[in-house]
Design a protein that fits this description.
Shape of chain A: globular
Distance between the termini of chain A: 38 Å
CATH class of the largest domain in chain A: Alpha Beta
Structural class of chain A: alpha+beta
Distance between the termini of chain B: 47 Å
Largest sheet of chain A: 8 strands, mixed
Oligomer: heterodimer
CATH superfamily of the largest domain in chain A: DD-peptidase/beta-lactamase superfamily
Chain lengths: 440, 429
């Protein structure tokens, strides 16, 4: 186990937990009640993508809250070679950072330090009296926001904030996010989360708070609130309340230099002429090239992005999900109370029509999706009773990582490769395979 | 609750393992290929497609499919719909050049400076510019047909490198030719090109490039006629391709299909969605290729219809016999359009450094040549099929024995899907 400096308090936490530092038990699928042959379908499917040169490598694990029941991996951290990838390989989580930061917010709510009904302007007064450019368009008249942005809006992506155009940003406002490098913490005078958030208040919202669902940089704003309330840098706080208690030793906003050899490089799908520039001796016909996003692997971030800054291994992220699947605690360590867990996983988009998700994520998503505090909710519709229930909670990241967690039967799946933008999010298919493999 | 509102979403809700991941076309039958193309459309990878096969007697099949009920409206194409050919333009310009060779107006070994004197210096060694190159010989007409002149491709049309960037900066061919407010004559563009060094020495390598655009300027000078008029009168009208050209008349603008580009966004959720958007590079967002060409780009600017392409394929399958019974090209030149012409010193995989998907394919004076297993570029008996494809995913092909041919049209610009080789491979009858 690698130990890194993380402050006196967390060392204490770690010492108290280290006697029984959590690791998943190794289990055969059959011991856990699954048909191993059916689960092997998962490896076959991802091997197909890997051997066709469409992803640089992959690691996937299927878990219950205490055991790993299936895993598969293929490839090295670089198409040019290096360590073989496995469940401990470090991957850029990107948007899979969001659920973790949302958990930290819920923790602060539990401790009475925050309320989801708190206004954002309580922490950053610049957000009083926001303007709205409906649909993100500057061709329309700006309106005064009907209500204030609350933490509930931020945690459920209903704040009216948007994203860069490269994610799901909408309209002229999103283009302005791109041009101004919003939330990159790199512009002069904006090299901290706090400065970025204060600056953001100058730009109009694209919708009135609470009225529509817009995937956004809201989670970065939540990170700034956490820093203000705790007086700690976001990474330090997450380390104390989540990473150390859950024995997530490979999760951080900056990859330690010694760990770079175990961290996958980031790739992007090549266009035809770019393919001509690939010069790698390999049996695989690569359809990808190295992404400019690789700078993330080695740079020292000016701020910790709550919306997309974390790196972690598949095993580490599964530990976090095991805590979620287990009602807020893992291996005797409680992160959230049961009541807080209910708040965490409750639908925060009850008023939203499918159309809200269709605009951002397409037709399929609109047919199944709702949103809790930091997690997508995959809904099952019972046609007979015309009712719906949660199938599982899920999310994914820009470099093609994804997960699901089924809090009813306790199954967890985490997949990672490093292809940005993400093209192969198959949490639905993998979850179905695991579901079908369960010996009834 | 009306959540599952169409068959399209079934992929997500049923355990359909075929829905997993990429749709691969290798070794599929014709029926399976069509099924997979339909799936690409239904799952939001392709806005629409048209597929038609012909033999020497006529049209054998036609199929069109468009994405319905999406956020971006997609018009279902018709055989008469006008589509942007992009690189499919190139073989036509080359064919016209061969016709002019046939009629003695140009010679394949003529240095291009005979017609375009400004480009005489392009091949001169040591001009001091970045990436300048030295050469022992001048660029000849043949180099323009074979992309061995040493020119690069504009970055807007997927060129890479400093020369490509310079073309883009100086507006030396590229997307503004397809639609632009400002008009540029071929003469003016050639003047700008003369100031840019070559990427490679003439004859040194195959480099997919603006050579075809330069060829048009040369033919225009040689024939003393505007290129657009020249190719219409001497190629399209004789063949019967009455709806092919650079400028689409106002009354046919409604027939024009839109071009799309991939939607590169980050989706943290599973499921399918429209992965394309209207092509945004044109200044007027609704603009379509052919409405208002900014210049004549013979390598990328033509607009045609599947109907016209069916006529063209039949013309090829019938050894270029026109309705009058006359042969369009004399036999030697006809054969040069159908057989490998690159010098053997460029190796057995001469196109692949510039066009990696072509692997061991060869190049005639207008078409790529795919070999049978174990075939040789030097032995036309071992050719499997000939083809050409464009940046929008469109392409055509025909069997080397001329038993059948086909045309596939999509309008997704700069896609990472390279469908044509698989389609050509799978649909052979």
């Amino acid at each position: 186990m690698r130990v890194k400096f993380c402050g006196f308090l967390s060392i204490l936490t770690m010492l108290s937990a280290s006697a029984m530092a959590f690791e998943f038990k190794e289990s055969t699928p059959e011991q856990s009640g699954f048909d191993g042959n059916q689960l092997n379908e998962i490896k076959a499917k991802f091997d197909e993508l890997y051997l066709d040169g469409r992803i640089p490598n992959y690691a996937v694990g299927v878990y219950t809250p205490d055991s790993i029941i299936y895993s598969a991996a293929n490839g090295q951290i670089s198409v040019e070679g290096g360590e073989n990838v496995n469940l401990d390989t470090i991957y850029w989580l990107a948007s899979m950072t969001k659920p973790i930061v949302s958990t930290a917010i819920i923790k602060l709510v539990e401790e009475g330090k925050l309320s989801l009904d708190d206004k954002l302007s309580k922490f950053f007064p610049e957000f009083e009296d926001m303007l709205v450019a409906p649909g993100g368009s500057y061709d329309t008249t700006l309106e005064s926001a009907k209500t204030d942005i609350t933490l509930r809006h931020l945690i459920s992506h209903t704040s009216g904030l948007t994203y860069w155009t490269t994610v799901t940003g909408v309209g002229d406002v999103a283009e302005q996010y791109d041009e101004l490098g919003i939330m990159q913490c790199s512009a002069d005078g904006r090299q901290s989360l706090e400065a970025e958030v204060r600056f953001l208040a100058q730009l109009p919202l694209i919708a009135h708070p609470g009225e529509s669902w817009n995937y956004s940089i809201s989670t970065d704003v939540l990170g700034a609130i956490i820093e203000q309330v705790t007086g700690k840098r976001l990474g330090v706080y997450l380390d104390e309340i989540i990473f150390q208690p859950l024995n997530m030793q490979n999760t951080f906003f900056q990859i330690p230099t010694d760990d770079l050899k175990s961290a996958s490089e980031i790739y992007t799908t090549a266009t035809a002429p770019q393919l001509a520039t690939i010069d790698v001796e390999s049996d695989i016909d690569w359809k990808i090239i190295r992404s400019p996003l690789n700078v993330r692997r080695t740079r020292v971030p000016n701020c910790d992005s709550g919306g997309g800054g974390l790196f972690a291994s598949v095993n580490d992220f599964a530990k976090y999900l095991a805590m979620i699947a287990n009602g807020g605690k893992l291996n005797g360590v409680r992160v959230l109370s049961e009541e807080s867990m209910q708040l965490h996983l409750r639908d925060q988009t009850t008023k939203m029509l499918p159309e809200a998700f269709r605009r951002g994520f397409g037709d399929d998503a609109s047919s199944y999706m709702k949103f809790a505090a930091g997690f997508g909710r995959k809904m099952d519709v019972n046609k007979d009773t015309n009712s719906e229930s949660v199938d599982y909670f899920f999310w994914g990241g820009a470099a093609n990582t994804f997960f699901w967690v089924d809090v009813d039967n306790g199954t967890i799946g985490v997949f990672a490769t490093q292809l940005a933008p993400s093209l192969y999010n198959f949490s639905n298919t993998i979850e179905e395979i695991v579901d079908q493999a369960q010996i009834k | 609750m009306k959540f599952i509102h169409s068959a399209r979403v079934a992929c997500f809700h049923l355990v359909a393992l075929s829905c997993f991941g990429w749709i691969t076309f290798a070794n599929a039958s014709e029926a399976e290929t069509i099924e997979k193309l339909d799936e690409l459309v239904a799952r939001g990878f392709l806005p629409h497609y048209q597929l038609s096969t012909v033999d020497s007697d006529g049209v054998r099949s036609y199929r069109a499919k468009a994405y319905v009920d999406g956020l971006v409206d997609i018009t279902e194409p018709q055989p008469e719909s006008l589509f942007a050919m992009l690189s499919l333009s190139k073989p036509f310009t080359n064919l016209l050049a061969l016709k002019m060779v046939d009629s003695g107006r140009i010679n394949l070994d003529d240095p291009i400076e005979m017609y375009l004197p400004e480009l005489g210096t392009a091949s001169e060694p040591g001009n001091g510019a970045p990436n300048s190159t030295t050469s022992n010989r001048k660029i000849i007409v043949r180099d323009l047909l074979l992309h061995t002149a040493g020119f690069a491709q504009n970055t807007e049309l997927m060129g890479l490198g400093t020369i490509a960037e310079r073309y883009q900066k100086d507006q030396i061919f590229g997307l503004h030719c397809l639609n632009g407010q400002e008009q540029q004559s071929l003469e003016a563009i050639i003047s700008k090109l003369a100031a840019v060094p070559l990427q490679n020495a003439p004859g040194a390598t195959f480099k997919y490039s603006i050579a075809t655009d330069v060829l048009a300027a040369l033919l225009e000078t040689a024939a003393k006629q505007p290129f657009e008029k020249l190719i219409t009168e001497e190629l399209f009208l004789p063949i019967g391709m009455n709806n092919t050209g650079f400028t689409v008349p106002q009354d046919k603008h409604n027939n024009l299909l839109a071009l799309y580009q991939p939607l590169v966004k980050t989706y943290p959720v599973p499921g399918d969605y429209q992965r394309y958007q209207p092509l945004s590079v044109f200044k007027q967002k609704s603009a379509k290729v052919g409405e208002q060409p900014g210049c004549i780009s013979a390598g990328t600017g033509l607009v045609s219809s599947v109907k016209d392409m069916q006529i063209f394929l039949q013309f090829l399958l019938n050894d270029m016999h026109l309705e009058s019974g006359q042969q369009y090209l004399t036999n030697d030149l006809l054969q040069s359009f159908l057989s490998h012409q690159l010098s053997s010193h460029l190796g057995t995989s001469p196109l692949s450094r510039s066009l990696p998907k072509t692997k061991g394919d060869g190049l005639s004076y207008g078409l790529a040549i795919h070999l049978q297993d174990g075939g040789l570029l030097t032995e036309p008996d071992t050719y499997d099929y000939l083809y050409w494809s464009g940046f929008s995913g469109s392409g055509f092909w025909f069997n080397a024995d001329r038993t059948m041919g086909g045309i596939f049209v999509s309008q997704l610009f700069n896609s990472d899907q390279f469908l044509l080789p698989d389609i050509a491979e799978n649909i052979r009858h």
